[in-house]
Amino acid sequence: MKTAAAPTSPGPAALEAAQDAQRFGKPQRGWRRRGYEVIFESDTPAGHAFDVALIWAIVASIVVVILASVAPLAQRWGTWLQAAEWTFTLLFTAEYLARLACVDRPLRYARSFYGLIDLLSVAPTYLAVLVPGLHALIDVRVLRLLRIFRIFKLSRYASEMHFLASAIAASRRKILVFLGFVLMVVLVAGTLMYVVEGPEHGFTSIPTAMYWAVTTMTTVGFGDITPRTDLGRLIASSMMLLGWGVLAVPTGIVTAEMSSQRRSAAAEADPAPILRTLLQPGAARCCSACGSTGHQADAQFCRRCGTRLPAENRPPD
Amino acid sequence: MKTAAAPTSPGPAALEAAQDAQRFGKPQRGWRRRGYEVIFESDTPAGHAFDVALIWAIVASIVVVILASVAPLAQRWGTWLQAAEWTFTLLFTAEYLARLACVDRPLRYARSFYGLIDLLSVAPTYLAVLVPGLHALIDVRVLRLLRIFRIFKLSRYASEMHFLASAIAASRRKILVFLGFVLMVVLVAGTLMYVVEGPEHGFTSIPTAMYWAVTTMTTVGFGDITPRTDLGRLIASSMMLLGWGVLAVPTGIVTAEMSSQRRSAAAEADPAPILRTLLQPGAARCCSACGSTGHQADAQFCRRCGTRLPAENRPPD
Amino acid sequence: MKTAAAPTSPGPAALEAAQDAQRFGKPQRGWRRRGYEVIFESDTPAGHAFDVALIWAIVASIVVVILASVAPLAQRWGTWLQAAEWTFTLLFTAEYLARLACVDRPLRYARSFYGLIDLLSVAPTYLAVLVPGLHALIDVRVLRLLRIFRIFKLSRYASEMHFLASAIAASRRKILVFLGFVLMVVLVAGTLMYVVEGPEHGFTSIPTAMYWAVTTMTTVGFGDITPRTDLGRLIASSMMLLGWGVLAVPTGIVTAEMSSQRRSAAAEADPAPILRTLLQPGAARCCSACGSTGHQADAQFCRRCGTRLPAENRPPD
Amino acid sequence: MKTAAAPTSPGPAALEAAQDAQRFGKPQRGWRRRGYEVIFESDTPAGHAFDVALIWAIVASIVVVILASVAPLAQRWGTWLQAAEWTFTLLFTAEYLARLACVDRPLRYARSFYGLIDLLSVAPTYLAVLVPGLHALIDVRVLRLLRIFRIFKLSRYASEMHFLASAIAASRRKILVFLGFVLMVVLVAGTLMYVVEGPEHGFTSIPTAMYWAVTTMTTVGFGDITPRTDLGRLIASSMMLLGWGVLAVPTGIVTAEMSSQRRSAAAEADPAPILRTLLQPGAARCCSACGSTGHQADAQFCRRCGTRLPAENRPPD
Predict the structure, then answer these.
(1) pTM here?
(2) How far apart are CA D15 and CA C310, in angstroms?
(3) D223 contacts in B (CB within 8 Å)?
(4) How many CB atoms within 10 Å of residue B45?
């Protein structure tokens, strides 16, 4: 079995660094070049230390936002949390300005994904100060959400994320077709339950019924809406078996395939050897000329070298 | 590992188009032939544009049906939704009549799956008008369901659906046996819980207990019926472990198989090298010339220096 | 890839028939031999017809038992259901006596698995008549359960069930270890929640907490008991991620393995071919001497014939 | 396909025994050597009997702790359970002292994982007696938890556990990245629901919303918190499809891969043979001498007559 070994050529992280240097313009010399090497690259000890410090700062700031949302904690520690939030905002502002300063094409960086994330990380706190009536317009919860987006600053440090993203992109057509099929089933089954159960049992509209259908087919099963009629329960059972079966049936088929391949390749201990011999005649036949195994049960000639195979199973050991 | 390459011969969509042309009778000449090419086929720009427009119309009409079922929206926008519904009905009626007109054997099309779907797409609105007392006989919800079936008009545009359908058809015996086994467990376990818990705990009859057993084995777990007695909870735990184990155990076995095959092919870092050598004989073959390890299990030559490799395991250094 | 083809030797069903003939003693001649061929074997048209009729009778009798447990139906159709139940009981009694009559060693059959199931299928109805006070001693629900066991008579007709059973038996050690590990986690996590949440939040004893732990780890989630404290919810989240991760992580790993193998074997369309070439140098290298592919990225010599490989990737077509 | 064969060298259990003998110091002679062989090793009949007895004692003591937590049982059988608990404590104390006595380096054993578990198994009961006010300080439930940790004494008897542990350790980076990704989704989606639904619908803080997001993405779905707004239900549906899709999509992709490989290797019955031939070039290679099909994809010789096969697809009949 052939596996893909780790490449000895430059890894994905280094390639991305090279691409960024081209796209944003790495300065030629001076303190700006040094700043670029520290902030954008990770080769030097200073660059690596900067990355580590920034990761901790991001994680810590997220924790502050999470804690600030818990009412008892906000009451007790409100001033400290506010102070921490301002500290992080100033820190990230400094980082953002430093990034802009240390590239040749700052507008290009500002318009890139990470540039926008960096801006979004600091904007809420300034908005809350500069636009006094903001609290009345936007719920403070929305500001919390915008701060939470700082988590995306972390993904520049995990190259596996990009590998995951490209793997998903490569299979996107299959995923879309699969999703389309699931949505079709959710639509039809949901409407069916809407007809059968009706608003008096909780299925007040087709969108509500579709929401219930999704909770049922994905085997989540909140239980806020449940079928009461016998026909409804029958349809629900079919949907549950379908949603679970989509996971269970292929898993079983794949396992059966692999098991039968393993049994073709090597004899397995079995309480009734005669039975196994009769059931799987070809299980452990071995070509006398080239020694290959795994021949189909009805094969009479070796597929690798053409020599005639023995008819019966040679008992193992 | 050899995979099935993409075919260079005509794809499934083109083959189906050819089959349809034979079955329904593509006209030889005139506007009917041009109409057939636009409506039934997608080769020409007009044909492709027709398909895109029809897909959007289908999706839009489904959205209208969904929105019409939400009571607040129906109250506010009722007239507009009605008008949209009539527009779509007239559109689909025109499409249906056009399809019938542009084939040589219209009755054959009318009796085919898509012909029936097309008829079902427009029938409810006409029925509601032509049969005034229909509202009293059939719930308006049923009419919504019939309109929802328009979604199946979309599946002629997704050839992957047919691939999926034929894959399922090919494995139908395995699926039926698996379902049969699951139903048997649901029946016996459900009746067992009916005996143990009884009607006073919600298990009012065997069908109800079977419905609960399905929600439990498929790990949905609505919670509308739950076991209260200790023995009932014990049986329920076994069922849950069975339903989840059917997914988890094969997944674990398959992963273990693939991992052990990978480890056979390439050496992996291990805290106790002696242990690994003794456990996996082929893992640490060592090239006598250059000393490299990690050779694939079926390799006969060293990939680094080209020297022939020994067949059995030599202990490393 | 080597697959196990269907054997051309006698199938498992025929082998079982041969085993039964040996074990129970197929009569040599006369009407008893003819009876054996019809009842126990399926080769002749009469034997096949008997099997089909019996399967329908079993399914119908199970439906009768299920319907009899639904109170409204029992009230309305009670007499008919009773009559049907007696009909089936007499039918199955006749079948049981016929089986005993047509073998040479009836006691052996009576003690076998199917013999006991056959006896259990008819016993409840007779018991209910012969032992008048039975209703007071055993709940009628228990009698329903015993009748439900007739479903096991069906499994003699599905040879795939035996295949499934032997596959499970072959992996029983792995399954037991896996179950043991899950039970250990359930015990420790359940007790932990019992300590953290306590009886006032529903976790009244360690068995109850273990039941909750099972519903959580198997992702069923009834919701009859839920954690209220923050620490309890944190522990619960870990358990949920563990129970779901046991399914998701191996699935993801297996898919990643297969994807990388596919990419080693054939080039895949990619929006940035240069990037892919740099990231996976060995993806489509082909040995000029023997033509094999799938070489590891750091290989310099072909592992099959020892010839030196080209260093860079040859772009596909 | 080459699988890792069962090693003929000493198994992992024996290797661990050897490592323990080195680490803790197996005595050279006398009763201490005999004691070491019985207690720490399993080669002799006495050693094996000791292991079996100890396993039963551990299981029995865990059962006692579990039963003692059930209030009705504690009331009825309190004295007996207490007596049993003291018996086991004394038993395990004797075992612990015996282990310490029969090694040359007792402090090393006392500091090892199993040494600490052994100490933790007996400590609670002594603490409860020696420190009278302990009940007021530590809930008796905590003492139960400490006793439950005796279950870990069992894992020295299951070498598969270590195999499982090392398999997980080998993949820990992949697992961490996967978990990191899941946590990122949980954080963002949870905060989004916190914004959309708000405290009046149960989403009182970001941690609470994250707990709900975990129950939803892992398809557990307790139902203690559920979305009420339409937008919230839409976001919830996306999360459910994501959590379930992570399991379903790879499973489907893997199954499709394996099915297509199987179909490459052997011809499968198909209602449109022309279609299949055109779609899967390698499927219908035909031996020119005997005309058989269904050859494996890597076969070079016909398995029925030994003649060399053509490389490309020849149309059948």
Answers:
(1) 0.76
(2) 44
(3) 222-223
(4) 9
Query: What does the block give as tokens for B249?
Result: 């155990």
**Largest CA-CA distance found in chain B, in angstroms, rounded:** 93
ipTM for this model? 0.72
DSSP D48-111: HHHHHHHHHHHHHHHHHHHHHTSHHHHHHHHHHHHHHHHHHHHHHHHHHHHHHHTSS-HHHHHH
Q: Which two tokens stand for residue C281?
A: 């140098």
Q: How confident is the model at residue B138 (pLDDT cuts 50, 70, 90)?
A: low
Question: Whose CA is closest to C211, among C175, C183, C235?
Answer: C183
The C-alpha of A251 sits at a distance from chain C's nearest C-alpha, in angstroms, of 9
Q: How confident is the model at residue C273 (pLDDT cuts 50, 70, 90)?
A: very low
Is C225 an 8 Å CB contact of chain B? no
- Mean per-residue pLDDT, B259-271: 52
Mean residue pLDDT of chain C comes to 76
Instruction: Tell me what pLDDT residue D54 has.
Output: 86
d(CA C59, CA B75): 50
CB atoms within 10 A of CB D305: 16
User: What is the phi/psi pair of residue A301, to 5°?
Assistant: -125, 145
The D residues from 283 to 302 touching B (CB cutoff 8 Å) are 297-298
Identify residue A81 by its one-letter amino acid code: L
Report the SS3 class of residue D308: strand
Q: What is the pLDDT of residues D233-259, one digit of tens each?
A: 999 999 999 888 888 887 777 666 666
Chain B nearest-CA residue for A224: B222
> Residues D27-49: pLDDT tens digits?
888 888 888 888 887 778 888 88
Q: Which residues contact B14 (CB under 8 A, 6 or more apart)?
A: none
Contact A7 C263 (CB under 8 A): no
Q: How far is the C-alpha of A32 from the C-alpha of A24, rounded, in Å?
A: 13
- pLDDT of C315 reads 40
Taking alpha carbons only, the member of A101, A107, A88 closest to residue A148 is A88
CA dist., res. C5 & res. A58, Å (int): 57
Asked if A209 has any chain D CB less than 8 Å from its own CB, the reply is: no
Residue D270 C-alpha, separation from nearest chain C C-alpha, in angstroms: 17
Share of chain A above pLDDT 90, in %: 13
User: What dihedral do alpha carbons C120, C125, C127, C129 form, nearest 10°?
Assistant: -170
What are the structure tokens assigned to B173, written together? Answer: 């015996």
Question: Which other chains touch chain B, taking contact as 3+ CB pairs less than 8 Å apart?
Answer: A, C, D
d(CA C8, CA C262): 33
Interchain contact, B211 vs A233, CB within 8 Å: yes
Average pLDDT over residues C173-192: 85
Determine if residue D227 is left, alpha or beta; phi over 0 gives left, psi from -120 to 50 gives alpha, anything else beta.
Answer: beta
pLDDT tens digits, D94-120? 988 988 888 888 888 888 888 888 888
Q: Which residue of C has its CA nearest to A274?
A: C15
Q: Would the CB atoms of B211 and A237 count as touching at under 8 Å?
A: yes
Q: Which residues from A are below 8 Å from B214, CB to CB?
A: 237, 240-241
Residue D165: CB atoms within 10 Å = 12
Helices (H) and strands (E) in chain C, counts: 13, 0
Quickly count: other Cβ atoms within 10 Å of residue A315's Cβ.
Answer: 11
Measured distance CA(C93)–CA(D16) in Å, rounded: 60
Please give the backbone phi and psi of residue D306, each rounded to the nearest 5 degrees, phi first.
Answer: 85, 0
Select from B66, D212, D213, D223 the least CA-distant residue to A183: B66
Map tokens 């082909």 to a residue.
Answer: C286
CB A220 within 8 A of CB D240: yes
Average pLDDT over every residue of C222-250 = 90
- CA D170 – CA D157 distance, rounded (Å): 22
Smallest CA-to-CA distance from D1 within D296, D254, D285, D281 is with D296
